[in-house]
Amino acid sequence: MSAEMKKGFIPSFVSSCVPEARRSGKLTEAQAREYCNCAAEKSATLLSQEEVMMAAQRKKGAEAQYMPKIQQASESCAATMKEKWAAKNSPKK
What we know:
Elements: H1 3-22, H2 29-46, H3 49-56, H4 63-89
Helix pairs in contact: 1-2, 2-4
């Protein structure tokens, strides 16, 4: 993905991700933003420019091509954030 496309992709991804991430009520606004920024950055490295265009255009049947990559990025960030937040909230020894 080009640097120019990445500039538009990341804010767009984050703005649609945050409300979804907050829907469960388990994440604060700051946690949702951190998670979504992580997922956006990782997705930007995994997706091709063509896949981003397909996603933006909501091309029928194209989700099978790009969604596994977004899922992979999201799962990686979820695991990272879970560990980070658990460590932050654990009692100090």
